[in-house]
Design goal:
By secondary structure, the protein is an all-alpha fold. It contains six helices and no strands. α2 packs antiparallel against α3, α3 runs parallel beside α5 and α4 packs antiparallel against α5. It is rod-shaped and about 105 Å long. The termini are far apart.
């Protein structure tokens, strides 16, 4: 039984896939909540706020939770794609309502559709913002390597000076 729990699927151990499960939960929550808010007739700003909240919770959970922690670059990418998927879902539901409306009602829906499209794009904007924010938290390997080389160079220079000082002291002692 214990062997079955530690089984690897596609070379990923079960504990390594919690971050993927959270991504799926965030996707389902964002899409499901967005659809429910549109169907219930809530103001478009509620849908935008809900999508932004889901994205922020996902980013915070994957950045601050030790068990779910992934690289900031991956968190940013996931937030961007989640925001884009929320936008596409919102637009699809809005277009569905337009198609389902009668031809005489479509003219009255145009301002509502335009505002819905604008607010739907907010989830992409939040996703892009979170991506840019997470890119600021990633480790810049080139800068880190440059700093390390400079520190190594200074340490070797100090070592040479100390060795020369030691050699002078030994010569003066003898």
């Amino acid at each position: 039984m214990a062997r079955a729990l530690n089984r690897r699927v596609h070379d990923v151990a079960p504990q390594d896939s919690w971050d993927r499960a959270l991504l799926l939960v965030a996707f389902l929550a964002g899409v499901g909540g967005g659809i429910l808010l549109k169907v219930s007739g809530a103001h478009p700003f509620w849908g935008a706020g809900f999508a932004a909240l889901v994205l922020c919770i996902y980013a915070a959970a994957t950045y601050y939770t030790t068990q779910l922690r992934i690289e900031p670059e991956a968190i940013g990418d996931n937030c961007y794609y989640l925001g884009f998927l929320f936008t596409l879902t919102s637009l699809a539901v809005t277009l569905y309502f337009v198609v389902q409306a009668g031809s005489e009602d479509r003219a009255q829906l145009i301002p509502e559709v335009i505002s819905g499209f604008g607010v739907a794009l907010s989830s992409t904007i939040v996703g892009v913002f979170l991506r840019v924010l997470m890119m600021q938290f990633r480790v810049d390997l080139v800068a880190r390597e440059r700093e390390t080389r400079m520190e190594l160079d200074m340490a070797s220079r100090d070592l040479r000076e100390e060795m020369a000082r030691s050699v002078r002291q030994i010569k003066s002692f003898t």
